[in-house]
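lol forgot to send this yesterday, sorry. struct tokens for the thing we talked abt
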């Protein structure tokens, strides 16, 4: 045998030995494993194949998800008829039905709501009713007849973003008031501004509530409707501030206002 050929084989053997456990190709793909090449041939042991660019992308994506801020986490065990109807008038997706469980999430920054939506919808069979993407904040509403489905999606989202319910933003009440025996002119202007809810009539009393973040007014509205015979006039749950307007007889409005404020206090508790 040619001595040059013999020396070449020896060199190759030494190179193979050095590359056992780790082989890097010219394309930047690294193959790693605990077994040597001979062991893999004999045992069929698997190895992990990743590219440098793929690894960096996965790490960057995980970092972005973990940086999402949870502003609002509102679970409504049973949507009341008026609130469900109101939410249906602003819903771009599946319409809510009275009695459905609902989860409202608000996150920051606004574009992060797409990642949160993807995680939630893949976690269970919840239906997406609304998704609002703003510059600073993003919000989604999910519905299902089964409360456990809604709660499971919420838990998966919290785990994915590394957060928890007790780390959501506190509910700050920026304004609350009851106005009694509203005048006809005032009633007409309110009705012209709010076309999605029921109308307020002259002589009714009116309860108004403003919160920050916005989504917390949904819990206030739902608990108020549970507690009293009132009319839902306006529920704005997106934007920098949430606004709730309820109307009815004076005693009913006072009872609804008390229920709404208890719901807000429960959020912070």
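and heres what i got for the seq, position by position
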């Amino acid at each position: 045998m040619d001595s040059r050929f013999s020396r070449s084989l020896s060199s190759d053997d030494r190179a193979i030995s050095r590359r056992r456990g780790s082989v890097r190709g010219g394309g930047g793909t690294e193959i790693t494993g605990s077994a040597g090449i001979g062991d893999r041939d004999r045992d069929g042991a698997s190895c992990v194949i990743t590219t440098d660019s793929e690894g960096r992308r996965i790490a960057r994506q995980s970092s972005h998800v973990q940086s999402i801020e949870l502003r609002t986490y509102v679970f409504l065990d049973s949507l009341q008829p008026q609130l469900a109807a109101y939410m249906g008038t602003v819903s771009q997706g599946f319409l809510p039905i009275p009695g459905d469980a609902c989860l409202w999430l608000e996150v920051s920054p606004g574009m992060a709501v797409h990642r949160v939506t993807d995680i939630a919808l893949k976690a269970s069979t919840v239906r997406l009713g609304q998704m609002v993407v703003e510059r600073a904040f993003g919000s989604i509403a999910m519905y299902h007849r089964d409360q456990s489905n809604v709660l499971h999606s919420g838990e998966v989202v919290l785990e994915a973003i590394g957060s928890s319910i007790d780390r959501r933003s506190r509910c700050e009440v920026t304004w609350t008031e009851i106005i009694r025996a509203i005048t006809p002119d005032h009633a007409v202007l309110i009705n012209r501004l709010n076309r999605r809810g029921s109308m307020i009539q002259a002589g009714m009393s009116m309860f108004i509530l403003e919160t920050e973040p916005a989504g917390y007014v949904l819990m206030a509205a739902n608990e108020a409707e549970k507690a009293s015979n009132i009319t839902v006039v306006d529920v704005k749950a997106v934007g920098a501030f949430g606004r709730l307007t309820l109307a009815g007889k004076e005693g009913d409005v006072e009872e609804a206002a008390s229920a709404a404020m208890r719901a807000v206090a429960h959020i912070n508790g």
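The chain has a mean pLDDT of 84. anyway ping me if u want another try
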